[in-house]
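Per reviewer request, we include the raw input and output of the structure prediction for the construct analysed in the revised manuscript.
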Amino acid sequence: MFHVKQLMINNIQYEFVDEGQGTPVLLLHGFPDSKKLWYQMIPELTQQGYRVIVPDLRGYGNTEVAASYRIQDSAADMFSLLTQLGISRAHVIGHDWGAFLGWYLAAHYEAQVISYTALSVGHPNGYLRSGGLKQLVKGSYIGLFVIPGVAERVLAAGDYKVLTKMAEDDRLHQHWYMDLTRPGRLSAGLNWYRHNLKSITAGIETVNVPVMGIIGTQDPALTTAQMKGSEKYVYGSFDYYEIAGGHWLPETHGDQLNQLIIPFLSRQRS
C-alpha cells in the first residue's frame, strides 16, 4: 500500500514508510503502536504535497529491538534518519511516546524542526505541573508498566485481554496483537516507560518552534489541562484544539486531525 524502506541507523535496523513528495513531515507513534497508527492520515498528507516519513520506533513494528529506549537515543536516531534521507528540516507530528519524542526533538534539534504538532501528550513540564491530581490518577498505570515481568504478565493475561479493553476499534487491537505477541516485543514497548521515567520527571527545555497541541476530551490517560499548560513552555506560537474523542486520535479521527494539521503546516515557513 505504501512505500516501505529499511535503513541501518545507529546499529539498529529501522523500517519506515517514505511516501509522497514535497516538504517532509515526520510522524512518530507511541505505545503500543507502530507506523500503522498513521495509515489513515498518510494519503491526505501526501495529496496535499507533503513527503511523509513514518518510522517504526525502536522495538516497535518491524524495527529491531534495542538495548536502550532512552528518548535521547531515539531522538538521535530520528536526526540520523532524516540526514540519511537527505532531509535537513521537517515538520514533526507525534502521538503518545512519539509526542514526548517530538517535544524532545523540538527542544534539542530546533534547527531541524519546522513545526511541531503534539497529539494527546503535552510538554513534559506541562504534564508534571499543569495536570494536577487528576493527571496523577490518570497516569497511575505507569507505576505498573515500569515493573519488569509484572507488567508483562498483567498485559498478556487472558490472551492479552487488556489490549481489547484499551483498543478503541478492532483494527487497533489486531495491529497490537500481531505486533506485541512476538517474542520480546511487549517488553520492548514497556521499556520506553522504564528507560525514560527519569526523563519524564526531570522535564525538558522550552520549545521555540511553532507548536500545535491537540487532545481528545475523552482521553482516559491524559487531561486537557496538561496540554493547555504546555503553552507556558512554548516560546513560539501555540495553537490548541480539543477533539471529542479518546486517546488514539490518528486512528479514530484521522480526517479531523488532517483538517486541523494541514492548514497549520501550510502557515509555517520551511
